[in-house]
Amino acid sequence: MVSTWRLVASAAVLSGLALADTCSTLQEISNIEVTDPIDLSYIDEQDDYWSTSCSAMKPTCIIFPKDADEVAAIVKVLNNNTENFAIKSGGHNPNNGWSSVQGGPLISTQGMKEVILDSETGIARVGPGQRLDSIAAALQGTGWTFVGGRIGNTGVGGLVLGGGLSYMSAQYGWAASSVLEYEIVLANGTIATASATQNPDLFKALKGGGNNFGIITTYVLQTHPQGDIFGGNLVFLHTDETDAKLLKAVRDFTEYNLDDKAAVIVTAERGNIDLIDTWILFLFYDGTEVPEGTFKNFTDVGPLLDTTKVSTYADLMAGSNWVIVKGSVVQIGTETIPMPSVENSETVMGGIHAHWRNITDTTLLELGIVASIAYQPFPKAIAEAAKARSPDLIDADDAGDRLILELNYSFIPQTDYDKMDLTLQQTYGGVRDRVLGWQQDGTLPDLYLPIFMNYGFHQQDYFARLRPENRAFAHAVSESVDPTGFFRTRIGGWKP
User: Is 0.85 topped by the overall pTM?
Assistant: First the structure.
């Protein structure tokens, strides 16, 4: 059988001409699936973003490669022109231009959705077109599971390349910590392997380095033993008293919970003119019997609604997609903060939450607004579990406990993108300014505070918040595997 690239190369040689735009070239001389704006598969794929601002960016075509050879052929064609392009896994990152593109080709990974499990070792080969709910469904009943995120619709590609925070991170580290090997197409169109023994520098750089080094076509993952779990939501109405109790509870859980199987996300949410003003908590326990008192500080506050129950992990993932706000522009930012002492908890946690409410007060007349802040424990156990498995760019230490804040705005008018962009900058910027002030006066410890790529806003400088030596390392690896700057200059994303 003649390979895809041989067809492309032969045609190029015969023509004696430089290759034209990627879409028409591939349509003319290869059998790779290339769809135009009038095709249903193009329309469906373009609609499948979390943010309508990404859907509004129109690629010239959408390409659906089915394996590494076809991706390599596409990259070689791209090397013969100067088009910007994008690679899309699940489309959950709402930053415009990260997995979306205006006027260039979009490479969708939806044709690469394998899940092949070795039931003896738990090692799985997973395609980048998979989402967390589909992986969980494929592994259901095998006794193994993938360490993924918390929303089922999230694509595996963006999650893992950004690190990936999981309900199971205190046990197993980041989602990226369980990657044993990457199959990757490099900037020159060659197919390579990155692992602890093959291209180890690239292997480390891919763990928290984003889309700077190549296109991943297969993730080889160590899955972990999995039975039924306990999980669900608690819902509370906002009052000042409830706010104070829940903020104290998440602080205390971050410090005092010693059971790595337990996890929480504590989210406050507001909508138009406060028709929504609630707390939604996500509780998770990796098992069916939750030790007494594990979540007592939260349940004692008195939820309005409690949906927690024993279920399969696959059902938990499938049931989590209600959090995606359809038909809206989505903007997400983040900050990492040191966990305050008990004595300073009210000052820090209360101060940050008051700042968030003050900023969101100004947004409540925005059409379709949903504003949220999620307090996510980042205990020392996550750093320890990640380091025990493999090196990564995040390089978190166990010098102290932290919390990751996820700051979301969703709204309907795309014309308000720039206005809300500034609002989000004020939101996370105000948190950062307060943390720096509290560190300076001794209210908070002086800890290393990387920002979490999976929640990063396009205005934030992800690599500047890594340790300087790791930023330099990522830049050196990028220049080594991509000396012409193919990925650095032609796709969106943070650059080392």
Answer: yes
**Per-residue confidence (pLDDT) for residue 325, from 0 to 100:** 85
Query: Does 17 score more than 80 pLDDT?
Result: no
Residue 265, token pair as written in the block = 């996300």
pLDDT, tens digit, 9 for 90 and up, residues 459-473:
999 999 999 999 999
Q: Write the burial class of residue 489 (CB in 10 Å: 0-12 exposed, 13-18 middle, 19+ buried).
A: exposed
Closest CA to 232 of 269, 283, 167: 283
d(CA 16, CA 449): 54
Query: Are 189 and 150 a contacting pair, CB within 8 Å?
Result: no
The label of the residue with tokens 């560190």 reads 439
How far apart are alpha carbons 135 and 264 in whole angstroms?
A: 22
Identify whether the C-beta of residue 116 lies closer than 8 Å to the C-beta of residue 216. no
Which pair of structure tokens corresponds to residue 370? 């949903």
Place of tokens 């990063």: 456
Contact 481, 214 (CB under 8 A): yes
- The span from the CA of 394 to the CA of 404, in Å, is 13
Q: Is the model's pLDDT at 474 over the cut of 50?
A: yes
